[in-house]
Design a protein that fits this description.
The complex is a heterodimer of chains A (440) and B (690). Chain A is an alpha+beta fold and 440 residues long. In chain A, the strands form two sheets. Chain A has a six-stranded mixed sheet with strand order 1-2-6-3-5-4, with helices on both faces. A five-stranded mixed sheet of chain A has the order 7-11-8-10-9, with helices on both faces. In chain A, a hairpin with a 4-residue loop joins strand 9 and strand 10. In chain A, helix 4 runs parallel beside helix 9. Chain B has 690 residues and is an alpha+beta fold. The chains are: A alpha+beta (440), B alpha+beta (690). Chains A and B meet through helix 1, helix 3, strand 5, helix 4 and helix 5 of A and helix 1, helix 3, helix 5, helix 11 and strand 10 of B.
Amino acid sequence: MKQLRLLSACALFLGISAAQAQQVSYQEYDLPNGLHVILHQDNGAPVVTTSVMYHVGGKDRTQGRTGFAHFFEHLLFEGTKNIERGTWMKLVSSRGGNNNANTSQDRTYYYEVFPSNQLEFGLWMESERMLHPVIDQIGVDTQNEVVKEEKRLRMDNSPYGQILQVVGENLFKVHPYKDPNIGYMEDLDAATLEEFIAYKEKYYGPNNAVLVVAGDIDIDKTKSMIEQYFGPVPTGQNVVRNFPVEEPITEEVRAKAYDPNIQIPATIVAYRTPGFASREAYVLDMISTYLSDGKTSKLYKKMVDEQKQALQIGAFNLGQEDYGMYLIFGLPVGENTLETLNTEIEEEIAAVRNELIADKDFQKIQNKFENDFVNANSSVEGIAGSLATYYMLYGDTSLINKQIDIYRSITREEIQQVAQQYLQPNQRVVIDYLPQSAKQ
Amino acid sequence: MRKHLILSLAFLFLGATSIATAQINRSEQPQAGPIPSIQLEDPQTFTLKNGLTVMLVENHKLPRVSVRLILDNPPVLEGDKAGVSSLFSAMMGNGTTNLSKDDFNEEVDFMGASINFGATSASASGLSKYFDRLVTLMADAVKNPLLTQTEFEKEQEKIITGIKSEEKDVKAIARRLENAVAYGTDHPNGEFVTETTVKNTSLADVTSFYKTQFVPNNGYLIVIGDIDVAAAKKTISKQFSDWKKSAAAPSNWKKPAASGSTAIHFVDMPNAVQSEVSVQNLVDLPMKSPDYLSALLANNILGGSSSARLFMNLREDKAFTYGSYSSLGSSKYTPARFRAYAAVRNAVTDSAAVELLSEIDRMASEPVSEDELAMAKAEYVGNFVMALENPATVANYAFRIASEGLPKDFYKTYLSRINSVTPEEVQAAARKYFTADKAQVVVAGKGRDVLPTLEKMTFKGQALPVNYYTPMAQKAEKPNYDAAIPEGLSADKVIADYIEAVGGRALLESVSSLRLLAEGTVQGMTINVEITRTQGQQFKQKMSLMGNVMSEQVFNGESGYVSMQGQKIPMQDKDIVQVRQEAMPFAELGMKGATLEGVEDVNGQKAYKVKWSANKWAYYSVDNGLKLKEVTAVDAGGQTMESAIEFGDYEIFQGILMPFTLKQQVGPQAIDLKIKEVYLNEALTPASFQ
């Protein structure tokens, strides 16, 4: 008995030290031109990340110009007033670094990772990009083809590559999330140079961006360099968003889609959910872990392991700023039909709606989130991305340390209540994702 | 005023603390700071009696730990039982002879941890507070796996379904053919799993694989994270010392034959919208080769990154692809593969292959510039420095020194050796390891589109022979797209079959008129189309956008007009010929003189291509006779453009099988229309067509 108590005291102590080891320290402030700056110092390894996130994504576009934000991201590698066309990547390599960018429906993120003696160089590059990028017809023509190849590679030539597009167009009717982030071919072809220049003016001001510098830095020196490189960038327009609001889905939607690159059909059961900063989104993260993360999760164990109906089953809570997409994806094994999978999926979701999940399962998912939280901030590059995201899209930088508290505070009752509110059969979209050859 | 002064003083002060106080000159690239000092520490290493080498790296940054097991055995040929290693790895980590599958998995999941197995590897990771338990479970799973018939059958079925799921995957089939062509299918790297070989395999084969391959003799166990080295040593020794020693089975395969002169190896993928193009050859390049670093730099300059030659040429200059790269493998057991590759749109397949070959050739024939070499070196130096952030790096280095037989100071001298490589050494390595003259050009793509140019492709004035393969990497005949028409089949028969399939001649002839109301969206706007056709060859098509009529075509059987934005243009004679053809409710009923041109693929379905007239074709499904598509060649300002309508979602309406979706394609524009309403046999007056 005594030994047991000793053990639990010990575990308690471990728990506290674990939480401390997690703390990510940072400073944040605004430049007079509106650029928000976040600094994170970690001198453990000679590595530094310089990154800029702009609050502009696929959803920021006019009718007939889908894919605009992503296309624009490609253009911002073409060169600047002081960086010649075609040399951006070479410059980064010549300083021993690497770089990339990515665009979601909500934001565009550019970053470089360098040995830490190249910090100033990284700041110079990102400030060049913000201050005076060169956007011209040659770039538009080249990148139009490149983006179309990217679309072919990732979607059109890729098995199950069109799932997100199909889910988007069925979950949304009026909000721009209805269209694919990469855009339609005809819209990509129709985009003009003038439109790109106007887009830069509208969305690429420092006041619509956050700069993160993370890693092996000296805070004072870094602040001074940031002032020098980013201070002169003029403030941009004030970005106002006014997207149409979706009516709730009250009747089940059935849809079919065809993919020439597949042989095994898939079923997708999708629900429209609140944006990722909402508390409900965190609860839905826990529900998807409960349903399909790990060999003993409900759907996996039942459908893949015991009843052998599915080759794969997964629940994903795809977070976005305005609305999320919660989807369950399954591939049948052998002769099992999609309808069988749908029935089995609904049975487990109904269980979450109708009763509290077991205490042990609840503890298990809490432990999983604890584990994920420890792993979340393991690289400077990852920390930089998280700091930018929490500030810009969640409106609270401190979530980098506190997000785990939200998960910890979620109760079994809340899980049931969120499932009842958002995961009802009449709110779902069921998609038969079929091989093209099944089309009559 | 005073406030102002203080403020600017503050700015001054801030400026004074920085290194570069003066104004910056943006047109000059900032100089690098002093090179950061780096330290390479060695992991704690010891070897158990059974041969297992253990490496420990203590790192307390995060309260977590990872354990990795690598069994460094030569690869084995699985032959007619290919798949046994995949089955084995899928079955591992699902319980032990001491702990049921459910209990094992439940415990791992409850810790929020993971334990995974490969055919000759395993890994575990989790919070460090669970270290002892995690190692105990992993060791139990390694030493006493639960391999049951039930699990075996389940994994067998999953693998077979998985194989099916890849049948149309262009990338997967390209990779399969590349390996098969490079190594031959009688080599571990060239063979692949099929439904037959999986069905050939039994539980006994899996158990035997475990006994002969999953042995500790050449094993490495690497532990990284928040551990106490002494305690971890104790735990590992306790759990792994009784893993029984046994020699791994010897190699059962021969070295692959060298490739002859450059040839194309092609597999037809009718669903491809991009071709996967690879230029490859085998290399003998263990890491201990004296020119290993020169070869790495050569590959880096050619295609190692998004600033390398392939990317700059094929993407940034020519816009053929989203990305083009090269890779250079290394293995101490078998020849490895050098490969330069890109996924490109169908139309530029041959051009991309030529560019890949030319860039490879240029590496061998010209020395690289000092600038390029300096950049490649900088990249290696940078990556080397930055990799130190990851605590696994020092363990990886120690593992490679031990397993590849490298000098002890291989990584300590790495940077200085990289920096001393000369352009001549890079060229010599390129000559030795990249062979554009004896290369294999492997292409997976849509043959109908890409073969005509690919077959004519030349490199350095030489035509390249083309070998054809099935998706299962079997040699095949050249695809003949015209020969697929069955003996004795004619256009009239295809048309008659279509008429039969949709409801029969009598029923179709009884339809005096057909009116369709269709709806779709174009760039977010609603488009409505109304089409009317009668047996008297009257025709009317009205198109509205957001409720406003945009265009109208009206034909009364003799004459007609097109009206667009208020302008009426009378139909010319050639328009009348065209419209007559389409004015009947079912154009096929009166069809004469049609010809059967071949069998083509329409969205993954085989279809008979029937030429209706000089500028119109229709496609009928080989499987069910239904019409899948109509294509019209339109003259647009001297250029011929194709406009196509695809028919889908056939449903029975008053006994007739009719398409309820129409997909209209003109150039890059596609409009999906859904039929909302259908009216048959309405009483229509001639006035409707005036």
